[in-house]
Amino acid sequence: MQGDIHFISGLPRAGSTLLSAILRQNPRFRAGMTGPMGSLVDAMLRSMSMSNETSIFITDAQRKALLQGVFSSYYSDVPKGDVVFDTNRNWCTRLPLLTELFPRAKVICCVRDVPWILDSIERLIRKNKFQPSGIFNFEPGGTVYSRVDGLAAPNGMVGFAWNALREAFCGEETSCLMALTYETLTSRPQQAIAAVYDFIGETPFAHDFDNIEFDAEEFDRRLGTPGLHKVGRRVEAQGRKSVLPGDLWRKYENDAFWRDPARNPNKVRVV
Length: 271
Prior knowledge:
Layout: E1 4-10, H1 16-23, E2 29-31, H2 37-47, H3 60-74, E3 83-87, H4 95-101, E4 107-111, H5 114-127, H6 144-152, H7 157-169, E5 177-181, H8 182-187, H9 189-200, H10 217-222, H11 246-252, E6 269-270
Pfam families: Sulfotransfer_3
Protein name: Sulfotransferase
């Protein structure tokens, strides 16, 4: 790639779209919502595995070059000296691969208290009362309990990302990892963005936290979840009462492992 690349990963509904919307104010930065690179990498790895009988002719050096080539092709319009932030929750499970492909790359993991993530998704479902969501395979039935169980399952939208984040925190590549809390990003955005610039080694830029713009209206409409990636104009923390029943809240209220030094053995930086 002509430009540098870093990655945004972590938990859903934890500020990754907001972070991208802020970063893209810098004319040297390219950032957005979750893109296709994660699934493209997985598809290529599968195609180059022994499930393909002709893969015997592909060396690991060629696999590496081919994967780098996919990134280079997709971001071929990024000028030299600019910076790409590619977003995907899968990246937390791919740290050994990413550090081999891009040794200078950093991974910023957006995190948030799990009950508030579940609350945020449930609010979207209730708000879009006339449109079943693709998050739940467009099924209109169910209860808040069945929806939360599905989200928190090992392969669910939240459960998979949470397990991937735990894997990243306990892996051998944590020097490239930083956790950015939703609370800091929304209540102290200047501090949060300064930490990001420091972590990736870039010169600070004067961001305007009162004029943020991002909305993937068509994408969200097709997913049956309008507002999923809509970012408010101003960065601010919004207090509210949870719509989750108390027993569901209590079930997940201790899952913010990044706050517990005993559960952060490699001392990943948490902002």
